Amino acid sequence: MSKKVVVIGEAREGSLRNVTFEAIAAAKIISDGGEVVGVLCGAGDLQESGREMVYYGADRVVTVSHEELKTYTSEGYVQAVHAVIEDESPEGIVMGHTSIGKELTPKLASRLQSGLISDATEVVNEGNSVVFTRPIYSGKAFEKKAITDGITFATIRPNNIPSLDRNDSLQGEVTEKGVEIKNIRTIIKDVIRKSSEGVDLSEAKVIVAGGRGVKSSEGFKPLEELAEVLGGTVGASRGACDAGYCDYALQIGQTGKVVTPDLYIACGISGAIQHLAGMSNSKVIVAINKDPEANIFNVADYGIVGDLFEVVPKLIEELKQL
Ligand code: FAD
């Protein structure tokens, strides 16, 4: 049965995050031929970003532009998105399972008296219900869930549901809705970014991660070079962060970021269960470790037993020749 599905878009520094396009693809599956309506909040002119959502498959987009929405606050965004949802009365809502998605969607679900399936890695429309697959027990198992009553509301994990191909000839209206944003009790004075460069870890296609085996912040240099050659970004284990070799913004794992890149290269990481919780669903895992018994080899597709300071430069050299 076709449904109207709202996709909550997310932009960072003026650019839409890839997971927005993946959410549109998920919304298409849920809608089963129904209408997919994008919602975009921010300040200034959001027309261009709205159009981009159309190019990736949204049938139309509603933007809410307001000075109070310049920087994300859940108070402001809940009011804006809720106003659009009230107008649209959708049967489904999808958003990326990002830091913002994780905070905004439960608040919206509570306002809408709706259920919420979070962190879905797969969406299948089985005709009479939409079934979501999501990891449980820190990624050690998966469960399948469906919402049988009310709004089908879900967040999707970045990098798992492929977005549709961009088609700039797609036509769809981008309209602006005026919403009165009031009673904001949070004032954002400044946003200080810890890692200003590189690709966002949760959306990266290639991650070269370093652990305590990297031994120093200087030791991360070859990993940064390898990441650059592969067009990826650098991540880390908590061991490396705790040792002060890198910033906690790079931490991957149970208490860090959850990532699912196409390629994950673990260098000098033992493979503790808490680290695996954040990366074991990567599509291809390569482990470089001098201990052949290291647990990381149990989840690796390819293992190299050796000293990372010898192996990584060799890899860089070979890759540069391709
Ligand atoms: P180690 O376990 O010390 O491993 C270093 C590895 O480097 C070893 O396998 C060694 O053989 C190898 N090595 C050393 N030198 C070289 C070399 N020259 N070349 C190649 N290999 C070399 N950890 C996370 O990563 N993320 C989390 O989110 C996280 N959350 C946690 C939450 C809780 C509640 C707890 C209790 C722990 C958490 N941890 C987390 C910590 C986790 O248990 C491990 O302590 C941590 O992952 C170990 O980091 P590591 O693999 O870098 O270090």
From TrEMBL:
Gene3D superfamilies linked to this entry: HUPs (3.40.50.620), TPP-binding domain (3.40.50.1220)
PROSITE patterns found in the cross-reference section: ETF_ALPHA (PS00696)
Alphabetical list of CDD domains matching this protein: ETF_alpha
This protein's record includes keyword Electron transport: yes
InterPro entries per UniProt: DHS-like_NAD/FAD-binding_dom, ETF_a/b_N, ETF_a/FixB, ETF_alpha_N, ETF_asu_C, ETF_asu_C_CS, Rossmann-like_a/b/a_fold
Pfam families: ETF, ETF_alpha
UniProt KW keywords: Electron transport, FAD, Flavoprotein, Transport
SUPFAM superfamilies: Adenine nucleotide alpha hydrolases-like (SSF52402), DHS-like NAD/FAD-binding domain (SSF52467)
Family: Belongs to the ETF alpha-subunit/FixB family.
Name of the molecule in the record: Electron transfer flavoprotein subunit alpha/FixB family protein
Annotated organism of origin: Halobacillus salinarum
